[in-house]
TrEMBL record:
<dbReference type="Pfam" id="PF17762">
    <property type="entry name" value="HTH_ParB"/>
</dbReference>
<protein>
    <recommendedName>
        <fullName>ParB-like N-terminal domain-containing protein</fullName>
    </recommendedName>
</protein>
<dbReference type="InterPro" id="IPR036086">
    <property type="entry name" value="ParB/Sulfiredoxin_sf"/>
</dbReference>
<dbReference type="Pfam" id="PF23552">
    <property type="entry name" value="ParB_C"/>
</dbReference>
<feature type="domain" description="ParB-like N-terminal">
    <location>
        <begin position="33"/>
        <end position="135"/>
    </location>
</feature>
<keyword id="KW-0238">DNA-binding</keyword>
<dbReference type="InterPro" id="IPR057240">
    <property type="entry name" value="ParB_dimer_C"/>
</dbReference>
<dbReference type="GO" id="GO:0007059">
    <property type="term" value="P:chromosome segregation"/>
</dbReference>
<dbReference type="InterPro" id="IPR004437">
    <property type="entry name" value="ParB/RepB/Spo0J"/>
</dbReference>
<dbReference type="InterPro" id="IPR003115">
    <property type="entry name" value="ParB_N"/>
</dbReference>
<keyword id="KW-0159">Chromosome partition</keyword>
<comment type="similarity">
    <text>Belongs to the ParB family.</text>
</comment>
<dbReference type="GO" id="GO:0003677">
    <property type="term" value="F:DNA binding"/>
</dbReference>
<dbReference type="InterPro" id="IPR050336">
    <property type="entry name" value="Chromosome_partition/occlusion"/>
</dbReference>
<dbReference type="Pfam" id="PF02195">
    <property type="entry name" value="ParB_N"/>
</dbReference>
<dbReference type="GO" id="GO:0005694">
    <property type="term" value="C:chromosome"/>
</dbReference>
<dbReference type="GO" id="GO:0045881">
    <property type="term" value="P:positive regulation of sporulation resulting in formation of a cellular spore"/>
</dbReference>
């Protein structure tokens, strides 16, 4: 197509060109220093089935396409090669490991070739590298991250600590991100559509009751609560739930009733953690004296 004009040579480096490429540390054998960059037919490349990013913003992709049109593809794609034997010769195809957005933008521009590094990889390595590459971009949806972490955990038996080491995050970040997948579907959809932020969602994930999560979610939407305000509301709800649990504790209620019968005055028991306090109510000084006599009797 004629849309790339004089920028064609900058978009497609010569086949003989070799560049030093740096990339994140993932499982072996992907830790190499220098690799050759080849021009590969764009329509011979298929998407990475392990790609964490489920959706791409159309406007963002258009901006990337404009940048590529102006400056070229500055960082090569990374692909794996598949050769199929045919009746007459062989057919070669490529699957993306990293560079999904660059590939999509190149297709949008109609580029016939893209610069790429060919690399052997396992399914785990393809997921790791695609995840690490996407984590370098701040706009990767939290649920896409959570699902990618979950796949590394479920399909490849990686612990949260091992996942954290591979993607350069703390174990707590990995664990808290994966907890987002336990949220009710409506809240997950709200997070994906940016009705709430990742910070909001992590606060809600700390609430045990799905009904309470939903109620707090509605509060966030209706009152435009920020993350700090949601944190305060979660704290209030947790304290209230704890008090209700204590109030309905049948053993505590039974003991309070026995003490009330013994003193002839209403007795309240307030729990706090593993301790608490006993409150004996009295009406006047004479009534207090009767209570004291029974205590020291």
């Amino acid at each position: 197509m004629a849309i790339i004009g004089k920028g064609l040579h900058s978009l497609i480096p010569p086949k003989s060109q070799t560049e030093e490429v740096s990339f994140p540390k993932v499982s072996q054998p992907l830790r190499v220093k220098k690799e050759s960059v080849f021009n590969i037919e764009t329509n011979k490349i298929s998407p990475n089935p392990m790609q964490p990013r489920q959706e791409m913003d159309r406007d963002d992709l258009s901006e990337l396409a404009d940048s590529i049109k102006e400056h070229g593809i500055l960082q090569p794609l990374i692909v794996t090669k598949t050769v199929r034997d045919l009746a007459k010769g062989q057919d070669v195809e490529y699957a993306l490991i990293a560079g999904h957005r660059r590939w999509a933008a190149a297709r949008m521009l109609g580029l016939p070739h893209v610069p790429a590094i060919i690399r052997d990889s396992t399914e785990q390595q393809r997921l790791e590298l695609a995840l690490v590459e996407n984590l370098q971009r701040a706009d990767l949806n939290a649920l896409d991250k959570a699902n990618a972490f979950k796949r590394l955990h479920d399909e490849f038996d990686l612990t949260h600590q091992e996942i954290a080491q591979k993607v350069g995050k703390s174990r707590e970040v990995v664990t808290n991100t994966m907890r987002l997948l336990s949220l009710p579907q409506e809240i997950q959809e709200g997070l994906r559509s940016n009705k709430i932020s990742e910070g909001h969602a992590k606060m809600l994930a700390g609430v045990k009751s799905p009904q309470t999560q939903k109620a707090l979610y509605d509060e966030i939407i209706q009152n435009s609560l920020n993350v700090r305000q949601v944190e305060q509301r979660v704290r209030e709800v947790s304290v209230s739930a704890h008090k209700r649990k204590i109030f309905h504790d049948p053993e505590i209620k039974k003991i309070a009733g026995q003490l009330t019968g013994y003193f002839g005055n209403k007795v309240d028991i307030h729990r706090s953690g593993i301790g608490g306090k006993v409150v004996i109510n009295f009406s006047d000084k004479e009534d207090l004296g009767k209570v004291v006599k029974k205590i020291i009797k």
